[in-house]
Design brief:
heterodimer; A: mainly alpha; Rna Polymerase Sigma Factor, Chain: A; Arc Repressor Mutant, subunit A; 2 domains; B: alpha+beta; four-stranded antiparallel sheet; 8 helices; RNA_pol_sigma70_r4_t2 (chain A); sigma factor activity (chain A); RNA_pol_sigma-70-like (chain A); DNA binding (chain A); RNA polymerase sigma-54 factor RpoN (chain A)
Chain lengths: ~160, ~230
């Protein structure tokens, strides 16, 4: 059982996590690919016997946060504010991706990052509160309050149909 | 008792409460229709989110990622998921090997036709989940969308069964003619997906351990209980 085949086995779940964080599926797969590359470079830092999925969730989440920050910086530096959200995306792909977005995707995207990642880990990936708090490196109480606020916002956005 | 803390209600839906606190929430919800409506919203939200992203896990992995990981990995494991699952289930005690067949797979439909409805403040199985709990035997469910894990007698009487679907898994107990869902956690995912000893399973096993009187039913006992319609 190699490191690579272990990664391959959890890859479907990693792609799902990436999709729940990202604004569209193309971004999600970019994120996933970057996380795999990072994991392969940093493989010596993974301790066998610990959970590979939690380690990968953490890598992916940190990449996603970093990328979000650099995108915001780029938007502030190079573009007027209202155009900022389009920076860094090819026009055609953008339009196509937005057409395909469902209510759930849009509602998830509207959440602040800190709520979206908590919701993604617990409601989509099925981590326990303790595991999710460890991945995010926050206290349990912080996690639960983000879950409460994130859910409240999602229910409001998705309406009765939620 | 309308002052039920939202965090407590949510922890209930997330399967994070112990038996004592679960009962507290159930009592509060039974006495308060507004609270029951809130519980209903949270259950539906969870079903909808889990159901929305579940298909992604079933998709083929993009070639670029597969290539990246296959440079050194020539062997893709097939045997391991069953072994991993066996360790988890084995925590529950002596379990017939026939109950260990396969991993959870299948689709729960979302929305109001979902697997769970809220009736009088409790989560009740409906649709294909209800029929799986009612009629499915763990020894004969190779292609079933919902899989039954353990069937067991509940402390104080009655029957309970654990179940797994792609989007949602849980434990349900017989109440009257229906099945009351005791705990709900996200599902087992796609068949063949390698899952490490998962938190979902550990939480469900803790619930099973808390509820179970004695050992899980073997195949013959399970069939006998089914034939008596779990009464």
């Amino acid at each position: 059982m190699s490191f690579e085949s272990d990664l391959l086995a959890i890859l479907p779940r990693l792609r799902r996590f990436a999709a729940s964080l990202s604004r569209d599926r193309a971004d999600a797969d970019d994120l996933c690919q970057a996380a795999l590359e990072k994991a392969l470079r940093a493989r010596d830092q993974w301790q066998p016997g610990t959970r590979l999925d939690s380690w990968m969730y953490r890598i992916m989440r940190n990449l996603w946060i970093d990328e979000g920050r650099s995108r915001q910086r780029a938007a502030r530096t190079f573009a007027p504010e209202e155009a900022g959200e389009h920076v860094g995306h090819a026009g055609d792909r953008d339009v196509e991706a937005h057409v395909m977005l469902s209510d759930v995707d849009r509602a998830m995207q509207s959440l602040p990052d800190e709520q979206r990642e908590a919701i993604a880990l617990v409601l989509v990936e099925g981590l326990s509160y303790r595991e999710a708090a460890e991945v995010l490196d926050i206290p349990m109480g912080t996690l639960t309050s983000r879950l409460v606020r994130g859910r409240g916002a999602l229910i409001e956005l998705l309406g009765e149909a939620a | 008792m309308t002052d039920m803390d939202e965090a407590m209600l949510i922890a209930f839906v997330d399967g994070e409460l112990d038996e004592v606190n679960r009962r507290r929430v159930e009592r509060a919800v039974a006495e308060d229709p507004a609270l029951a409506a809130r519980l209903d919203m949270h259950v539906r939200l969870r079903e909808r989110l889990a159901g929305h992203y579940a298909p992604i896990e079933a998709e083929p992995v993009p070639a670029a990622m597969r290539t990246l990981l296959q440079e050194d990995a020539k062997v893709v494991p097939f045997a391991r998921p069953v072994q991993a699952r066996r360790r988890v289930w084995a925590m529950g005690g002596a379990i017939a090997a026939s109950l260990l067949l396969g991993l959870g797979v299948g689709h729960f439909s979302g929305g109001s036709d979902g697997p769970i409805s809220i009736e009088r403040g409790t989560m009740v199985a409906q649709g294909e989940l209800a029929s799986a709990l009612e009629t499915q035997l763990a020894s004969a469910q190779e292609e079933a969308p919902i899989r039954i894990g353990l069937s067991f007698r509940r402390k104080g009487g009655g029957w309970c069964r654990s179940f797994e679907g792609q989007a949602l898994s849980g434990v349900a107990c017989r109440e009257g003619q229906g099945w009351q869902v005791q705990q709900l956690v996200p599902g087992a995912g796609r068949e063949g997906a390698y899952r490490q000893a998962s938190s979902g399973d550990a939480r469900l096993m803790a619930t099973v351990d808390a509820l179970m009187d004695g050992s899980p039913l073997d195949a013959a006992q399970e069939k006998a209980a089914k034939d008596r319609r779990w009464q």
